[in-house]
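This is your field. Have a critical look at both lines of this record:
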Amino acid sequence: MANDQQHISAKVVLALSIPLILLIAYSCSVAILSPNFYYKETLNWQAQSIGQDYIDLFLVMPLLLVSSLMVVGKISNGKILWAGANMYLVYTYLIYCFDVHFNQFFIVYCLILGLSFYSLLYFFYSKITQSYIKPIYNVKIRKTIAIYFVGLSILFYILWLLEILPAISGDTIPKSLLEVGAFTNPVHVIDLAIFLPGVLITGIMLLKEKQVADLLAPIILVFFVLMDITIGVLALIMKYQNITSDITVSYIMAAFALFSAALLIWFMIDRKKHI
């Protein structure tokens, strides 16, 4: 167990995580406690922004804190949770930086994005440069995660294209984009350009037993759990504020979150056998 953790410096993890935790705590708390903090946004985007602040403050930040302490304490799987939390923060704060109107926390958003990005980069650097990527020994786990990644990436590509292509052909703007009042949908941009291709490629590499995919797979699963919870909670918040009437997406995301969590736990239990 100690050998599994020694490749990540506790000092570096703390140096990256402590300011990140403090910045998230400060910016999210102020936004939540300040009436109409996101007054420049549409009602839809206001609800999502405040909802995201609650999730960052009460879910993601505690996970980042606990996983950091796990890494420092050389507790198994701490580094996976830490990297997954930082991947989630990179995704989320790209949206804060580019699609939330300029406000008093713009520099804070940039700092959080930078710290989480370099935390994730450090994780990969520490593993790859020391050639220390622990393989997925269980063939069933490998194939199940691979099929899940390939299937999910294709599914969301289809969902986004079903929304985007009719708007392009009809020279209109997608309804979801009108509701948030942005120039483009940041989720579409990140997913279509970076995240979904990455998940698809990771799934294919898992099937081909490529070593780097064994490193990426559990981190992506942590990300999935966090993101599925986020989407489900935001849908409930918008229902509560009478912005939307359908909460079917919340049930779907709950199912995805549970399945992703089950795969992650299965992975961690199996890996513990080989430590």
